[in-house]
Amino acid sequence: MSKFNETYTITMKDIVREGDPILRQATEEVAVPPTKEDQETLKCMLQYLKNSQDPELQTKYKLRSGVGLSANQIGLNKRMFAAYFHDEKGNLHEYAWINPKIISHSVSMIYITNGEGCLSVDRDVPGYVPRYERIKVKAVDLNGEEVTIKLSGFAAIVAQHEIDHLNGIMFYDHINKENPFQLPNNVEIKSLF
Nearest CA to 88 among 9, 185, 157? Predict the structure, then answer.
């Protein structure tokens, strides 16, 4: 029985930090339709993100602000993640996805000028993280329904960051090792903000 249910509040002590082997392994597919336990875990993960963006709760629980959280970041070998954020146009995105998969992507790429961060990484990692500008994701939602969604801009970046987690990939694996601020050649790439 998982401790991550509707009465549990995830805090930073639950977040697995870099160096833990679970962050480097590809996660296991989750049974569909999702069990009540998996649904509650995902809701709990989503609630962490909401709490972490609320100044009062952030202070009360000493939370680091986050926009996405993958199951392996709380020590679970399960292919699912939650995301909660406003994109560059101010639109609210809220996802709790099981077995997400990128089924297509643009050739053009984007990156965030000040780099990416991660709840599992307690240090600044300078460098550009190139991501696809537009992606199409197929996943299963909390109700066990299959969804296919097109994402672009910041929403595409968040989804790629989280899906990478589920594949055992950290954001800094995409940073150019010789020159962290060098972008890929022969591809259209622009900064998002």
Answer: 157
The domain tally of the chain equals 1
As a whole number of angstroms, the distance between CA 32 and CA 14 comes to 26
Q: Global pTM?
A: 0.96
Is 1 within a domain? no
* Rounded-to-integer distance, Cα 125 and Cα 115, Å: 8
How far is residue 17 CA from its own chain's centroid? 15
Encode pLDDT of 119-164 as tens digits: 999 999 999 999 999 999 999 999 999 999 999 999 999 999 999 9
Which among 29, 56, 162, 178 is annotated as catalytic? 162
Which structural domain range is residue 18 located in?
Answer: 12-191
Q: Let me know if 18 is a catalytic residue.
A: no
In a domain, 7, yes or no: no
- For residue 61, is it within any domain? yes
Q: Is the dihedral of CA 7, 12, 18, 19 positive or negative?
A: negative
pLDDT digits (tens, 9 = 90+) for 54-108: 999 999 999 999 999 999 999 999 999 999 999 999 999 999 999 999 999 999 9
Q: Which domain CATH number covers 69?
A: 3.90.45.10
Classify residue 29 by its DSSP letter: P
Give domain status of residue 4, yes or no: no
